[in-house]
Design brief:
Elements (H helix, E strand, L loop, with lengths): L5 H9 L3 E7 L5 H8 L3 E8 L2 H13 L6 E5 L13 E7 L1 H10 L1 H6 L2 E6 L3 H10 L2 E11 L2 E10 L6 H5 L11 H21 L7 H23 L2
Parallel strand pairs: 1-2, 1-4, 2-3, 4-5
Antiparallel strand pairs: 5-7, 6-7
Helix pairs in contact: 4-6, 8-9
């Protein structure tokens, strides 16, 4: 029996029955194996840019006897896929800017998928802004807590003209995540972190003013999100 980490489990459970799932940068094919074993996909493609991890994925796929259902490919980003080949594309465990670059370089393939599931390790705000600017509709989002760390998951798909200019200019990534205890805990943690940094820096010289201003903007950002969530319970 293959047990997924909490964040991968949320991704796996969100996928309904489909024909083909592509897991980009698959990290040893854990998610594809789970999806095939649970009849959530008829076929899975697990990719990696390096030969070593791809070979480990292949050994694990063979261990579960799933060679007929899971294909391992070596390739950079979405270049390992054909246009309209995958119904669902998963890109998890990478930085938000790297995910943005992968989508940008393979934009036609990204647009052709019915759904993209993205799990940025950082820079989610930058990634979400890029998605909005490029007409990707964000239809779900969730904060998942795993071993005292918080992870952001974004479900999106290409939908032409789904946002206006106001949406692009007013990005608060918290608004795209469903209201949950994990989200509120994450926001409270961010508020506490930035409040502590500001209190610490204010005891020193004016040289810290720029950093104080940056942290103050972040503090307002998360306080706005908490207020918005409290009004939309």
């Amino acid at each position: 029996m293959l047990d997924l980490t909490p964040r991968l489990a949320v991704i796996g459970e969100s996928i309904d029955e489909c024909d083909v799932v592509a897991d980009i940068g698959s990290d040893h094919a854990y998610l594809p194996i789970y999806l095939i074993n649970n009849n959530k996909a008829k076929k899975a493609i697990a990719t990696d840019i390096n030969k070593g991890p791809a070979e480990i994925s292949m050994k694990r796929v063979k261990k579960y006897g799933l060679e007929q259902h899971i294909e391992i490919r070596i390739g950079d980003g979405l270049s390992a896929l054909k246009d309209k080949e995958a119904d669902i594309i998963v890109i998890a465990g990478m930085g938000g800017i790297l995910i943005q670059n992968i989508l940008s370089e393979g934009i036609d393939i990204a647009r052709s998928a019915g759904e993209l599931i993205l799990q940025p390790m950082r820079d989610s705000r930058i990634l979400i802004k890029w998605l909005i600017q490029n007409s990707f509709e964000i239809f779900n989002g969730e904060i998942v807590k795993e071993n005292d760390k918080f992870y952001e998951i974004i479900w999106t798909r290409y939908k032409q003209n789904c946002y206006d200019e106001k949406s692009i200019d007013m990005i608060n990534e918290m608004f795209y995540y469903k209201n949950s205890p994990a989200l509120l805990e994450y926001i409270d943690k961010k508020i506490s972190e930035y409040s502590g940094i500001i209190d610490h820096l204010e005891n020193f010289t004016h040289k810290n003013q720029k950093r104080i201003e940056e942290c103050s903007k972040e503090l307002i950002h998360y306080k706005e999100a908490k207020k918005w969530l409290s009004l939309n319970v």
